[in-house]
Amino acid sequence: EATLTGRNDYWNDLRIGLRLDHDFSPRTQLLLEGNWYDLNTRHEVNAPELIAPYYSYPEMDAYYRGVYSIARLKRQLSPTSDATLQAYMDVTDGKTLFYTEERSTIDVEFKHSLQPLPRNTFVWGLGYRNSQDFLPGLTDPERFTLELFNAFGQNEWNVIPGRLRLIAGSKFEHNTYTKWEIQPSVRTVWGPHPNHTIWASA
């Protein structure tokens, strides 16, 4: 019991999930994972009012239901190179005292890591996300879609192995709202002692 007026509150959460790991070969691995959930709650909320006592404690029933899954395929291309392809899906709907929401999301990402030089590690990749929302009575329009495309690249240079590293890269992103965005970054990591690390970024 956690309410201020002595009324009952509760929280019930049912979840079912599974995971599969499979090695096609020593160099190729597959991961599959899925989860389903059903969450129901009841609790009091503090609602302001215009007349004394200027607040009330209505009970709010809420539920959230959904399913999400992930698939990841990883391949070792060489002793210094590997690639990963990952896909993610999430579908959920929920209802509270204040709003109702339905949302579905799909996300796909590809990443490739390689060592073109003995002291260099370069990572690049591509990504796509599509998220569709339905919020009746809360937004205009009630249904809207967010699409996001991105590409990224990063190089890590071991200037002094075990002591000094320089990391530089950038992310290029295009989304529904702000269109193109560029997010460059530069970092340096210095280890003057095995138990101490100093870093700076810009």
Alpha carbon gyration radius: 24 Å
Widest sheet: strand order?
1-2-5-6-7-8-9-10-11-12
The general outline is: elongated
Order of helices and strands: EEEEEEEEEEEE
Helix share bin:
under 10%
Are there runs of 5+ residues with pLDDT below 50, and where?
A: none
Summarize the structure.
By secondary structure, the chain is mainly β.
Write a structural description.
The protein has no helices and twelve strands. It is mainly beta and 202 residues long. A ten-stranded antiparallel beta sheet has the order 1-2-5-6-7-8-9-10-11-12, with no helix packed on it. A hairpin with a 3-residue loop joins strand 9 (143-160) and strand 10. The chain is elongated, with a radius of gyration of 24 Å.
Based on the model shown, name its key terms:
single chain; 202 residues; mainly beta; ten-stranded antiparallel sheet; 12 strands; 0% helix; elongated
Helix-strand layout with pairing:
Layout: E1 10-25, E2 28-44, E3 47-48, E4 55-56, E5 59-78, E6 81-95, E7 100-114, E8 120-134, E9 143-160, E10 164-175, E11 179-193, E12 196-201
Antiparallel strand pairs: 1-2, 2-5, 3-4, 5-6, 6-7, 7-8, 8-9, 9-10, 10-11, 11-12
